[in-house]
Amino acid sequence: MKEVKLLTPDRDPMGAAMADYLARGHASRLRVFSSQFDEDEIPVKELFRTYSQMPLLERIALDRAEGRILDVGAGSGCHTLALQAAGKEVEAIDISPLAVEVMRQRGVKQVRQADLFDDRFCGAYDTILMLMNGSGIIGRLENMPLFFRRIKSLLHPDGAVWMDSSDLRYLFEEEDGSFVIDLAGDYYGEVDFRMQYKEVKGEPFDWLYVDFQTLFCYAAENGFRAELVKEGKHYDYLARLTRTGL
Ligand code: SAH
Q1: Which of 198, 51, 224, 78 is nearest to 138 (CA)?
Q2: Ligand 1 centroid distance, CA of 206 (Å)
């Protein structure tokens, strides 16, 4: 069972960074730590990207989003606002209270603080968007059945989920082009992260990068068809998930 977790403002570094950026036009470093990688940073400005600044994979998902749309993990609301501007009906959710506040200030009409995995969050949508490594929200492979149960309850029978991810296998690539992956270990796309903005430290969280084949198999086992819509420039892809009626 996945723990339901809404953030609080004192433990919401990404939200704090976005609030600063919105108020002052710039932000300090949003630092990312992981037990698997070196320290990294998220450029806060990129969380405020406009439609024309978005990667092609994201623009395709926005162009094809229709009906009642749910933007899951909406962040600063960049996708929600682009859809609103295109006259589409869209609702945003995020576990971050400060992201929700930023979205309200930016003019997102329908937004609430909610966890996708919380059964109390319900609705009926034609399109569900999970963008910017949106598979991350699933956390770990073991949460896949629960994830598909949740989207089954939120999605119209003929609706679609649009999700992007990266295949992290390039991190294990040898000079000769082969891949060395420890099949007995955890799945190579399961990552842990922790973020910090100024003095605000977030709790560690699981983030799932999933390769398309793995996503395809889990989808099939859970009554969904996964279609590879478009590949990006660097081991990333956009997938469309639809129900098979099982
Ligand atoms: N989609 C945005 C933000 C991506 S960052 C963009 O493309 O810019 C991922 C976001 O997902 C964060 O704002 C985080 O707070 C949110 N999030 C993480 N887990 C979530 C969950 N279980 N339910 C809803 N939102 C979640």
Answers
A1: 224
A2: 12
Q: What is the CA radius of gyration of the chain?
A: 17
CATH number of 53-191+206-243: 3.40.50.150
Which atom of ligand 1 sits closest to the CA of residue 117? 22
Residues with CB under 6 A from ligand 1: 14, 47, 72-75, 78, 93-96, 99, 115-117, 131-132, 137
The token pair that represents 156 in the structure block: 């119209």
């309850």: which residue's tokens?
153
What are the residue ranges spanned by the domains of the chain? 53-191+206-243
Per-residue pLDDT of the chain in tens (246 residues, 90 and over written 9):
677 689 999 999 999 999 999 999 999 999 999 999 999 999 999 999 999 999 999 999 999 999 999 999 999 999 999 999 999 999 999 999 999 999 999 999 999 999 999 999 999 999 999 999 999 999 999 999 999 999 999 999 999 999 999 999 888 777 887 777 777 778 999 999 999 999 999 999 999 999 999 999 999 999 999 999 999 999 999 999 999 976
Q: Where are the alpha helices (DSSP H) in 27-185?
A: 56-64, 78-85, 97-106, 144-154
Is residue 53 a contact partner of residue 81, using CB atoms and an 8 Å limit? no
Nearest to 41, CA basis, from 19, 13, 20 = 13
Q: Is the pTM of this model over 0.70?
A: yes
| Both structure tokens of 88 | 């589409």
Residue 13 phi/psi, 5-degree rounding, is -60, -40
